[in-house]
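Help wanted!
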Amino acid sequence: MADTDKSPDSSRRSERSRRAILDASLALVGEVGYNKLTIEAIAARAGVGKQTIYRWWPSKAAVLLEASMALSGDAEDEGEWTGFPDTGDIAADLKHVLRLTVDQFNDEKYEAPARALTAAGAIDRELGEKFTRQLLEPALVLYENRLRAAQAAGQIDADIDVRIAVEMIVGPLTHRWLQRTNPLTHDFADTCVDQVLRGIAPR
Amino acid sequence: MADTDKSPDSSRRSERSRRAILDASLALVGEVGYNKLTIEAIAARAGVGKQTIYRWWPSKAAVLLEASMALSGDAEDEGEWTGFPDTGDIAADLKHVLRLTVDQFNDEKYEAPARALTAAGAIDRELGEKFTRQLLEPALVLYENRLRAAQAAGQIDADIDVRIAVEMIVGPLTHRWLQRTNPLTHDFADTCVDQVLRGIAPR
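Answered by r_m:
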């Protein structure tokens, strides 16, 4: 933020405006989709002027990216997410995280903006690469790190391609979610984890 | 088609128009996306009147669905696809098909309309369910049948959830393709198949 007035009141107002803008962008992208989302509509919903948004963000993509990252941060604050667990039981840890993802995809608040952004990113290469780099990849790296720890502990095969193992865990869920082939359930998450782990177990 | 003039010349003309409309719809959806695609633009590109399209199809979704099915049919005619192979070697058969899918996703002609339709279907539930039911599910069933044959032959575990195994094979590819996380290669296809098969091998 390039705000020059640094009084406490102004900071509080700025933070309130910032959150109102991020919340409005998430609500609206879920309602109207990425293409029809406008800075004007976000400003109107947030009760701020258009210029307030343009002062802090160069584009609607930038607003949404920060909003999505803030949404992930909220989940952490609410205790839904406290870092990728490492209890020593790789199956339990992966199931825990994949079940949380299932829960998010079954929760309209997370699902609607995630769907709108994923669809927009699928079409718009530049936008998609930005979201993949800044939102998706950091999440995949957490899976990778947990699997590498399990690999170091001798719980999964040393020759396994860990990155592809991660995609085998999250890919079916994304496939089922985006293309609505079948319901997303905890059972589904558990079976994915079990079948992937069997495939990458030490020989 | 509800054409009443059944003379040979008229049939040829109709078939030519039908193909021109389907081809135009695929080219245009790749260029402008599903939302901006109009029947008018398809008609102009195909060199036919709007009414010709409305005589045969009720909506742009219906045109695109038939066009996508025709595109799959073309691949069969060109010998790129001759039914899901069953050579007795489940790994070789799955790799063969998954490599073909990788090739299609690396071919603009297939990739652009598939991406536009998948993104549109992700947003528009009704459209998405239609595409999933009429295009995606029939393809997944071919995988399922091949895996069930391998299961009957004792090559994969009797207790495995075959449907989820299919999603473990195609999910990572869809994930990588739509979200552009990493390049789609034959090596990737092969590793996916190998790691999934290890996971569902007889215990």
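OP: Thanks! One thing I noticed: Residues 83-200 of chain B form a domain with the Tetracycline Repressor; domain 2 fold (CATH 1.10.357.10).
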